[in-house]
Amino acid sequence: MKKKIVAVMMWAAMVAMLGAGCGSKSSDDSSSKSETKKTLTEDDIKDSMKGVKLKVGTSGLFGPFSYYDEDGKTLIGYDLDLISDLQDLLGFEIDGGVQAMDYSALTTSLSESKLDMGAAALCATDERKEVMNFTDVYCDSGQVVMVNKTNDEGIKSVDDLKGKKVAVEKGTASHTYASKNLSDSELEVHDTITTAYESLEQKKVDAVIQDGPGASFYIKTTPDSNLEVVGDEFNQGQAPYCVAVSKECKYYDEINAAVKVLIKNGTTDELYAKWCE
């Protein structure tokens, strides 16, 4: 009987100890979580990543956000300036320079953590959120329909694309929209938006779907183009541009806080005015 009582008492003591241990750990966890959730200020993050090297990617094929200058070698655009501003604020270095690749390779590299960060007018889609992290939205865009004005197909808006041949760039918000909503159209999927534009210029397709700023930029910078935008922007709010961060990169909080700072202090508005208007 005494043995039973002793056993019960020992069991109760063990439970009490375990309970205290869990309580202590839980308290530590919540304190750690609340620290993680603390809003980082500009003072908190200034030069907080000095000595850190990040592998950074962009597309180089999506003006005005990332494209090559007239020399064909220098990457310029909204996103390149944004990356530079993030560097100035956080103090990190770019390992080997910004790498340019098409969207499919860029998103794959981020999802497989071959890159730490990507800035290329990347849309924070639900599918991408499963394999990479995204900062706050620094720019939002809808899609537009582009047609060849020398080709009379009667297309005045996205509602007129039924039965038409439509070109999109692989892996973009336009591609996602067309795949989900244009089942009665024939899709021509391109690795780059450049070849999609060429296809429309040559009348091989009836229309191109593209983000509004990208379409405007192409028309503005291609004087001999026959392309024009028809109808209003659509799918608005579904193309939020964010900086993408690999799930294995431990500096997400700092990068996101830096993006918030650049939005709050008007830097992103200045970049939009410089590159998109």
What features would you describe in this structure?
The chain is α/β, with parallel strands linked by helices. The chain has two domains: 42-140 and 240-276, D-Maltodextrin-Binding Protein, domain 2, CATH 3.40.190.10; 141-238, Periplasmic binding protein-like II (D-Maltodextrin-Binding Protein, domain 2, 3-Layer(aba) Sandwich). 42% of the residues lie in helices and 26% in strands. The protein is built from ten helices and 14 strands. Strands 2, 7, 8, 9, 10, 11, 12, 13 and 14 form a nine-stranded mixed β-sheet that branches. It has a three-stranded antiparallel β-sheet with strand order 3-4-5, covered by helices on one side. It is elongated. 38% of the residues are buried. The model is unreliable at 1-36 (pLDDT under 50). Keywords: Signal. Residues 23-42 are annotated as: Disordered. Residues 53-277 form the Solute-binding protein family 3/N-terminal domain.
